[in-house]
Structures are given as structure tokens and as C-alpha cells.
Amino acid sequence: MAIPRAAKTQRRTRIQEEKEEVILEAALDVFSVHGFRGSTIDQIAEVAGMSKPNLLYYFRTKEAMHRALIDRVLFTWLEPLRAFDANGNPESEIRSYIRRKLEMARDFPRESRLFANEMLQGAPHVEDELRGPLKSLVDEKAEVIRAWAKAGKIAKCDPYHLIFSIWSTTQHYADFDVQVRAVLGQEHSGEGRFEDAARYLEKLFVDGLGIRQS
Amino acid sequence: MAIPRAAKTQRRTRIQEEKEEVILEAALDVFSVHGFRGSTIDQIAEVAGMSKPNLLYYFRTKEAMHRALIDRVLFTWLEPLRAFDANGNPESEIRSYIRRKLEMARDFPRESRLFANEMLQGAPHVEDELRGPLKSLVDEKAEVIRAWAKAGKIAKCDPYHLIFSIWSTTQHYADFDVQVRAVLGQEHSGEGRFEDAARYLEKLFVDGLGIRQS
DNA sequence: TGTAATGTTTACCAATCGGTCAAATTATCC
DNA sequence: GGATAATTTGACCGATTGGTAAACATTACA
After folding, report:
1. Which superkingdom heads the taxonomic lineage of this protein's source (chains A, B) (predicted)?
2. In sequence order, what are the residues at sequence separation of 6 or more whose Cβ sits closer than 8 angstroms to the Cβ of residue B109?
3. pLDDT tens digit string along B105-161?
4. What residue in B sits closest to A195 (Cα-Cα)?
5. Cα separation of B106 and B164, whole Å?
6. pLDDT tens digit string along B164-177?
7. What domains appear along chain A, each with residue ranges and CATH number?
């Protein structure tokens, strides 16, 4: 008699690990496009290639699936910002932060859209994480940037809005991908557009922040 | 015997105009948060304060409501870009474009989120408009920017990515409003954040584009 | 190899979905 | 004020929703 849902067992079976992975992959496909309410369990089950009750054996509710996804994405999403180094020099730190964020938009567009969907809906599932861990991290890095400005290494500017502008410009290439492709046309819709974007954005921010006085 | 749905009649009644306005207002509330599939007619009806069949008397389907909304938003959304003047001087044109877009994010956040939702879902209802009218308009303005660069009035840069970066940075304050508020904290979440953003963004772009050589 | 735990599926449920219909109500105009 | 057109609603429909129950199949392990 199968007592528990997968989560309750102490050790996780090989099958559990595999299937949960398959499910989250499918859920990411669906949630990232249609948002929480617009997605259906049946749809996720179909993408995952298993029956709906089987899905619900691993994740008891639709919310549980979404929760598991969000938790995973939230963590990895902030890695580039965590890597932002106070001891590095401003130019290379900002350049590599932009590059890293742009790579994430290119390589993990579904994760970006999942997050964007959550924000658009008012962050009903993650508002605590925004006010807590996220704010703390941003506060910390904002202080670094402010110190750079004070030391004359970069122009004086609001560090929070600087971070917002890097977030938005880079994520734009994942979240608004359709629009970007439509506007650029077929000829510039290849992967090369990320290189173009990187070049443009690095120049914009480096010059915009008055770095590279040489 | 009421012959037709409202749309079929030649002249639109006073009641029709009023009610359609009320409905679209409610639909904007709902669609902008939950996207097309995540929104329900019942929910819109409740917000609009009328019965579901009554809604469907004015708009035959959920799609018709969404369509009417999208059409309206698409038009007004591009006004700032249309106002972008080739004969103006680069600095003031870019400054006022940023300001206008930022004002729209502040004054019409629901419209911005409706559009963002549509993009996230792959623009299933507006892809034609993106490839057609939108692309044409952007192409035209990109040519203006390119001419400025060629004339040495601004630094050489990819005009398309420049436009993308202005779109994304400004719309961010509408679409990711929850996140912005959470990170800034209560003390900076007032309307003043738009002034701060405007100051920061204008400086970023003006310096980033090498304008203001004086 | 047997058996207990784990994994899967079929059939199903109540609630909600988008939408219809006909009857009732209200506005318009002579 | 009455006829006619426009508006509104309650009752309802089949399809889909998130989720459950229990039988069935498979795996792991002694």
C-alpha cells in the first residue's frame, strides 16, 4: 500500500528523482508561457508524457509544482549578482555582470519568463523572498556601487536604478523575444543578436557610468 | 426583439458606449494580471459589476474583449515613438522619449502589463502587428538614429538595441513594479521613484551615447 | 522467489469554464 | 402612453478544470 506522496518518504528513489525532473521540466515549459492560472495540469502531464494522476503522485497540487519550480529558479537566478565582486574593478565587474545576465537570458529564457510572469501577477507566491533575501542581496551590492562612486571610480548614480536597468535590458531579450525577433527581422534573429546586444549594452553602461577614463 | 449584438448595429447607443467602456476597463484589470488564458469571463463580469451574459451581449467572446483591448493599447503605446522627431536635436529627443515612456509606465501600468503578458506568451494575438506596423515604425526611427550617429551627433551604436534598451528600462517600472517596490523598500516606494528613475536613465543614455560633448 | 513498498492508470467527482437561450426588464421614439 | 427596439438576467449546456479512490503493475529487497 503506497502510504505517502513522494515528498513524505525519507529517501528518494531513483524513479522519484528522474520523474520529478521530467515533471518540472514540463511544468517550466507550460508555466513560463501561460502563467500559473493559465496553465493546466493536463497540459503539463501531456508535455511530461505521463498521466495526470501520476503527476499528482509526485506533486500533490498544481501549486506544489509551481512552488518547486519557483524555488529552484529564484536561487540560480541571483547567482550572477552574487558573483558581483566588490574587490574587482568596476569596469570588468559591470561588463561581466551584463554578459552573465545576457547569457542567462539566452540559455534559460523559460526561467526568465517564469519569473516575469510571477512579477506581472504581483508576485503572489514570492513576495516574501523579494522583500527578504533579494532585497538584502541588492542592498549589499548597491553599497559596493555607491562606494565606487564615492571613490570616483564611476560616475555618481543611483545604484538601485543601475541594477534595475541591467536587469531589465538583459532580461528583455528573453521575455520579449518575440518582439525582438519581429523587429529585427529574419536576417538578424539568429543567435548573433546576443553578441550585438552584449556589445551595445556594455558600451552603453561603461560610457554611461563614466568608466574608462583613459 | 433584440436583433444583434451591439457591434452589428449601425449607430452605437449611449448605453453601448458607456458599458463597453466599463467592460474594457474591467477586462484590462483582469487580463493585465492573469493573461488571456488565466482570466475568466466571470471574473471580468464581477469587476465590471454586471452579469456574464450581459458582458457577452457587448462582446461575443472572451477573445473579442481581449482583441478590442489589445488594439486600443497597441495604438497608444507607440505614440511616444511616433513623436520621436528626426529634426529635433538628439539630446532633447532622447531625453523626452525616455520621459514619455516613463510617464506611460507610471500612468498606464495595466496597459504595459497587458502588453508584456502578450509578449511572454509568444504574441499569439499580435504577431502580425509586430512584424508589420511596429517593425516599420522602428525601422524608420532606427534610420534617424543611424543618421545622427553618422553625422557624429551621437556615438556609433546599434539603433535597434538602443530602442530595445529604452523600452525595457522604462517598462520595467510598470511590469516589475512589485519587485522594484520590494527592493527599494517602503521609504523609496512613493511616486518619487519615477523621478529618480528618470534622472538616472536620462543620464545613463545621454552619457552612454556620448551626447552632450560640451 | 516472494512480498511489501512503490509506481501507474482507469474511472470518476464536484466545481468552474466559455457560451447560449428565452424570458423579463428597461429605454426610445412616435 | 403604447409599440418597438435595446438591454439584462436566471437557468442551463457540454467541456474542461483540479483533484481523488481504488485497482492494477512494477520495483526493490529479504
Report:
1. Bacteria
2. B32, B174, B175, B177
3. 999 999 999 999 999 999 999 999 999 999 999 999 999 999 999 999 999 999 999
4. B161
5. 19
6. 999 999 999 999 99
7. 13-72 (1.10.10.60), 78-208 (1.10.357.10)
